[in-house]
Every structure is written in C-alpha cells, then in structure tokens.
Design goal:
Organism: Turicimonas muris
Largest sheet: 6 strands, mixed
Oligomer: single chain
Helix content: 25-40%
GO molecular function, one term: ATP binding
Bound molecules: adenosine-5'-diphosphate, magnesium ion
Strand order of the largest sheet: 6-7-8-3-9-10
Number of domains: 1
CATH superfamily: P-loop containing nucleotide triphosphate hydrolases
InterPro entries: AAA+_ATPase, ABC_transporter-like_ATP-bd, ABC_transporter-like_CS, P-loop_NTPase
Keywords: ATP-binding, Cell membrane, Membrane, Nucleotide-binding, Transport
Shape: globular
Number of helices: 9
Radius of gyration: 18 Å
Strand content: 25-35%
Protein name: Amino acid ABC transporter ATP-binding protein
Length: 246
C-alpha cells in the first residue's frame, strides 16, 4: 500500500521556486533517505509532509489516499512526526523528558502509556541507567535518543527525520545509526513509512530502502538503494557521488 503520494509538488517562497513539480510515492514500511546538495529543498519537502511548511502553489500530497488538508492538522502532526536536527531537552530527568509529550494524550490509559514507554526506550536504544540522569547532562547522541523516544511515546505512524545526526560526531553518529537500523525494523513491522534527510551518504546506504536525490528543487533520482549507489548511468547521481569522495 502507498503511504505517501507526492504529486507535482511545487513550492514558492518569495521569488524563488524551492520545489519544482516533485513527484514520488512512499510505500508502507519503506525507509526513504533524501540526499542532495545544501539548499536543494530537502527540508522544505519534509516539512510539507506534515504541513509545517507554507508556500505550496501546485500539486498535492496524499497520505493513505487522502489529501493532507483533509486531516486535522494536530492529528496529522501526531501521526506524521517530525524529528528535528537537535532534540530539545527540558529541565528534568531523561525519563521525564520522554514521558513529557504523551501525558497530554487523551483516550490513552496509564497502562497503555507504560507499555509505550517500555517499547519506546527499547526501540530508541535507551539504557535504564540513562533514565534518571538530568536530560541536559546527557551527551548529544543520548539526547537524540531521548527525543526519538519522546516522539515514539505518541505512537506515530510516520517518522520524518531531518538530518538527525548533523550535530553528532562521527563515532556517536555511527552508533546512533545502528539504533536507527534497529528502529527501522520495528517500523517496518508496523508498516510505518520513514523519510530521513542526511548529508552523510554512508548513512543512506546503511539505512535506506530507497534514495531520493533532490537538486535545485527537482527530483534527480528516486531509486532502490543498491541501484542508487551502484548504477552510474544517471550522470547527475554519478557526479554527486564522485563529488562526495575526496
Ligand atoms: N522564506 C524563504 N524565501 C526565499 N527562499 C527561501 C525561504 N526559505 C528557504 N528558502 C530557500 O529555499 C532553498 C531550500 O531550502 P531547504 O529546504 O532548507 O534546503 P535543504 O534542506 O536541501 O538544504 C534554499 O535555497 C533556501 O535559501
Ligand atoms: Mg535542510
């Protein structure tokens, strides 16, 4: 089943066409990595998927066959969760930070929340020792895990990641990617779709089922991960991959 169908999406801000007739489909359970040069429109595209962005002048986005505008925007954003580059930590322990958002959920029993908590910390790779630590004292990688667990507490259907490793050093980033790989398997079981922007191509090759490459607001390629990295027939992809290597 198709989760997202993006059809001729065009976004203009000021005088500038940020996205130019972007079309692609994301299937249930699929993990798509979005790559491309800085300024290509990657964040704009991701934010359009849960209506965090403005400026759409053309095209449409369907989620589960329904236009995004047909959803209540708060419900949409709970189900299509956006994970920012850097997780915001509030005063309090890691555990309090993780439980923070979900306490306002209606129609969810305490028992269900406890169940979600146990799952969320497992899937986000949080150790029991971390839970009592003041969130601000955790490392960058640990804070990202707390942010993801907090999001998982809301039981989202789709996860949107905008360069979640951008603020992490290489070692932490690699460790975090292994967590994401485990999370990805859980998401696949739930038939959740995920989209993740990354500027580190090794992350895309490690995590993605499919790779979407954007350049100047246009789709240059949308290919299964192996084809993207091993098929030089698309000249712009080949040049992009070449530029990435020293
Ligand atoms: N309000 C705006 N007015 C004009 N240009 C904008 C505005 N917001 C973003 N842009 C431009 O849109 C382009 C795409 O931005 P973005 O989606 O953040 O790219 P990426 O995430 O790929 O780096 C950039 O060139 C940026 O300068
Ligand atoms: Mg960006």
């Amino acid at each position: 089943m198709t989760a997202f169908s993006i059809q001729n999406l065009t976004v203009v801000k000021g005088e500038k066409k940020i996205l130019d007739s972007v079309s692609f489909d994301v299937q249930e359970g699929e993990f798509v990595c979005i790559v491309g040069p800085s300024g290509a429109g990657k964040s704009t595209l991701l934010r359009q998927l849960n209506r965090l962005d403005y400026g759409r002048i053309g095209g449409q986005i369907l989620w589960n066959g329904k236009s995004l505008e047909e959803y209540d925007v708060h419900v949409l954003r709970e189900q299509v969760a956006y994970i920012f580059q850097k997780a915001v930590m509030f005063p309090g322990s890691a555990e309090e930070n993780i439980k923070m958002g979900a306490q306002f959920e209606h129609n969810v029993t305490q028992q269900e929340l406890e169940g979600r908590f146990v799952k969320a910390i497992r899937e986000a790779g949080i150790t029991p020792e971390m839970l009592s630590v003041e969130a601000a004292d955790l490392s960058g990688g640990q804070q990202q895990r707390v942010g993801i667990a907090r999001t998982l507490m809301l039981d989202p259907v789709v996860l949107l990641f905008d360069e979640p490793t951008a603020s992490l050093d290489v070692e932490t980033s690699n460790k975090f990617c292994k967590t994401l790989k485990v999370l990805k398997e859980h998401l696949k079981e739930k038939k959740s779709a995920s989209l993740m922007i990354t500027h580190r191509l090794e992350e895309a090759s490690f995590l993605a089922d499919k790779v979407l490459m954007l350049e100047e607001g246009k789709v240059v390629a949308f290919l299964p991960v192996n084809e993207f990295f091993n098929n030089p027939s698309n000249e712009r992809v080949a040049n992009f991959l070449k530029a990435y290597k020293l």
